[in-house]
Amino acid sequence: MKIYFAPMEGITNHIFRNAYNEIYGHIDKFFTPFISPSEKSPMTPRERKDVAPENNKGIVLVPQILTCRSDNFIEAAKELQAMGYNEVNLNLGCPSGTVCAKGKGAGFLSDTPALTRFMDDIYSYADSANLKISIKTRLGYSNPDEFYDLVDIFNGFPVSELIVHPRIRSDFYKGEPRMEYFAYALEHAKCPLVYNGNIFTCEDLNDLPGFADGRLDTIMSGRGLLSDPSLGSRLKGLTSDTDPGKFRKFHDTLYNAYRKIMSPDINVLYKMKDLWAYWQHLFEDRERDIKRLMKAKKYAEYEEAAYRII
User: Fold this and answer.
1) What sign does the CA torsion over 280, 282, 284, 287 have?
2) CB 281 within 8 A of CB 290
3) Helices (H) and strands (E) in the chain, counts
4) What is the DSSP letter of 129?
5) Among 188, 149, 146, which Cα is nearest to 168's?
6) Could you give the CA distance from residue 37 to residue 75 in angstroms, rounded to a whole number?
7) 287, burial (CB in 10 Å: exposed 0-12, middle 13-18, buried 19+)
8) Could you tell me the end-to-end alpha-carbon distance of the chain, in angstroms, rounded to an integer?
9) Which long-range contacts does 226-231 make (Cβ < 8 Å, 24+ apart)?
10) Are 57 and 283 in contact (CB under 8 A)?
11) CA separation (Å) from 82 to 127, 130, 131?
């Protein structure tokens, strides 16, 4: 089975990816938080730094692009190819209100004629440039039945992989994934499929359509892998990686790396607290210390609480 690490804006940057890959591993592909090209530039300096090959050594990385303009997509793809990337991913899943209001991410799913024209353009370019384009999508914008037409559209193009998060935009990340629609994709999609959504335990794999009979062999996880860094090895049936020393090394690697590039204290602590919002369930017996950690405003306060926990 292959495991992909889903992109999570503000969290799964190159510092996080390198630390995770070194300490836990077992990830077949990492996907970058989305690059949002504009008329002025295909990438911001921060985005360019995040995808720079020298900052992602030993990692199989797929840059993700968020746009509803094919010319901007192609310009970003050209720059990424110049860096050595032969695959990019189109974001059709982001449910953010500001993103969708601009017709991007999941907001693009509501305008299938425009989406089809967009895909005509980018896949024509991909064919001429020998570039793979995968897609990460939701079922639709406002109704899951939109997915039936979307599958027909995707089937008209050489999509290298279709990553399906079986929720609609208004679901955000709440409620149960709509598995019956992923089952439909297994029967009708012509390209390789990847399942994404609510994989937090090994048992969750058993509920996935196509997993038991081998039709599904690739999954993507974001919140699950972030909430429990040892999950990847367990999903692959390897050692549990529950050694607390490994988690502390992961924490310290991230903490020290952010201290080197960010200031003042509070900015680093905001970054670490974003991670602890996912990690805290691993330490349910340390609730008081976690509350102290979340209130910390200086390194000393943070460290006193963190090292009582880990």
Assistant:
1) negative
2) no
3) 13, 9
4) H
5) 146
6) 8
7) exposed
8) 31
9) 226/8, 226/11, 226/12, 226/275, 226/278, 227/200, 227/278, 227/279, 227/281, 227/282, 228/200, 228/282, 229/20, 229/23, 229/24, 230/24, 231/199, 231/200, 231/201
10) no
11) 16, 13, 12
Of the candidates 135, 34, 134, 131, which has an alpha carbon nearest to the alpha carbon of residue 86?
A: 131
Pairwise CA distance, residues 277 & 294, whole Å: 9
| Residue whose entry in the numeric block shows the structure tokens 């020290």 | 256
Q: How far apart are CA 2 and CA 186, in angstroms?
A: 17
Q: What fold characterizes domain 2-235?
A: TIM Barrel (3.20.20)
Return the pLDDT at 240.
Answer: 61
**Number of C-beta neighbours around residue 37 at 10 A:** 23
Alpha-carbon gap, residue 114 to 281, rounded angstroms: 43
Joined tokens for residue 107? 């907001």
Res 259: pLDDT: 97
Q: What is the pLDDT of residue 68?
A: 98
Supply the DSSP string of 69-114, one letter for each residue.
-HHHHHHHHHHHHHTT--EEEEEE----HHHHHTT-GGGGGG-HHH
Where b means 16+ CB within 10 Å and e means fewer, 164-193 reads bbbbbbebeeeeebbeebbbbbbeebebeb
Model pTM above 0.90: yes
Which pair of tokens denotes residue 302?
């943070």
* Alpha-carbon torsion angle 26, 29, 33, 34, nearest 10: -170
- pLDDT < 70 regions, the chain: 239-242
Q: At what angle do helices 146-154 and 112-129 cross, to 10 degrees?
A: 20
- Return the residue matching tokens 């730094």: 49
Structure tokens at 75: 């310009």
Does residue 116 sit in helix, strand or coil?
helix
Q: Which two tokens stand for residue 195?
A: 């399942």
